[in-house]
Amino acid sequence: MPDDTLFDALRREPDAEAPNLHAVDAADRLVLDTVDEQPGVDRTAPIAVIGDRYGALTLGAVALGFADVRVHQDAVTGVRALELNAARVSSAGTYTQHGLGAELLDGVRTVLMQLPRGLAELTEIAEHIAAHASADVVVLAGGRDKHMTPAMNDVLRKSFETVTAGRGRQKARVLTARGAVASGMTYPVSRRLSDIDMTVVAHGAVFAGAGLDIGTRYLLEYVPKMLPRARRAVDLGCGTGILATELARTRPQLEVLATDRSAAAIASAAATASANGTRITVIADDAMSTFDSASVDLVVCNPPFHEGAAVHTGGASTLFAAAGRVLRPGGQLWTVFNTHLNYRRELADAVGPTDLMGRNGKFTVARSVRPSAQQ
């Protein structure tokens, strides 16, 4: 087990930080203890780390003496957090980043991972491991008991001959999968949504899959009203890119960008736009951090209200502040949110005067306007 001083140094930055949000959990520690106790593991051979949230698994593997550590993280915030934490513990350059596929998994005989909450994401990961890693690969997948379900075992059994659950510790547990069984790839999936006349493409990790969540459905009704003079628009937290695709196909004069911190979302949005004959630009980014200030006319956003498993509105606040920065004077942010969250004051503070444009049984749509320079 790595020394506790390693874990004590880790932070979630640039992700949201709060007393109930942590950079290391009991599942990270248990996975590392489990691999450390595995007999006959060649620590000079490549090892893959998947779903590491802030670097505990990656930097822990380095501390255990693994020399070729390959990493896949879906969230760009996770990638950046790992970079920052590696610098904090003098471990920069001790691992390499890869997409989910052969480059990550070729020749790998050990995989360390945090179990994702979604079964679709777990399916895509398991199928890639079975297809590309060594046939004798051992997968050590950790999670908190409260987030683990028997269905996770069932998903893993479709790609591995045996799946066993280890003993629990501090309300965490490790599933061990062995005997890879390659059976093809389920993802990305494609679905035609006839009610909005759109084909949606989704990778396993993307929110709402190839469906249409009801908040986005409601916001779609307001697309025709969104700043007709706009020339540059951003779908912020784009998911599968439904809003970006709708903007692009109904307003051909508009330059449309779709951005999300999830690599799966970015790939899904690009594929959705292509499937519907539209052109958008996709950018993996954390809350438009690479966008110039005052460079956009219109931002559309269906913000999250979770950070991982925790209910936390910090992510939405970050997106609102980002929109206020990148909007030009007179530019607009259109958002949809659960009515009980009552974001109107926060939107006004972050962007500018905010009007409630519509409300149904669950959601509110708001328009916030960036004040002109003379105001």
- Residue share in β-strands: 25-35%
Through-space gap between termini: 59 Å
Count helical runs: 12
* Structural class assignment: alpha/beta
Low-confidence stretches: 306-313
What labels describe this entry?
single chain, 375 residues, 18 strands, 7-stranded mixed sheet, 30% helix, alpha/beta, 12 helices, 27% strand, globular
TL;DR?
With 375 residues, the chain is of the alpha/beta class.
Describe this structure in words.
This protein is α/β, with parallel strands linked by helices. It has 12 helices and 18 strands. The protein has a 7-stranded mixed β-sheet with strand order 3-2-1-4-5-7-6, sandwiched between helices. The radius of gyration is 22 Å and the shape is globular. The termini are far apart.
Layout of secondary structure:
Layout: H1 4-8, H2 26-36, E1 46-50, H3 56-63, E2 68-72, H4 76-88, E3 95-97, H5 102-105, E4 110-114, H6 119-132, E5 138-144, H7 150-157, E6 160-165, E7 172-180, E8 189-193, E9 198-202, H8 214-220, E10 232-236, H9 242-250, E11 255-260, H10 263-275, E12 281-284, E13 296-301, E14 306-307, E15 310-311, H11 314-326, E16 327-338, H12 344-350, E17 354-359, E18 363-369
Parallel strand pairs: 1-2, 1-4, 2-3, 4-5, 10-11, 10-13, 11-12, 13-16
Antiparallel strand pairs: 5-7, 6-7, 8-9, 14-15, 16-18, 17-18
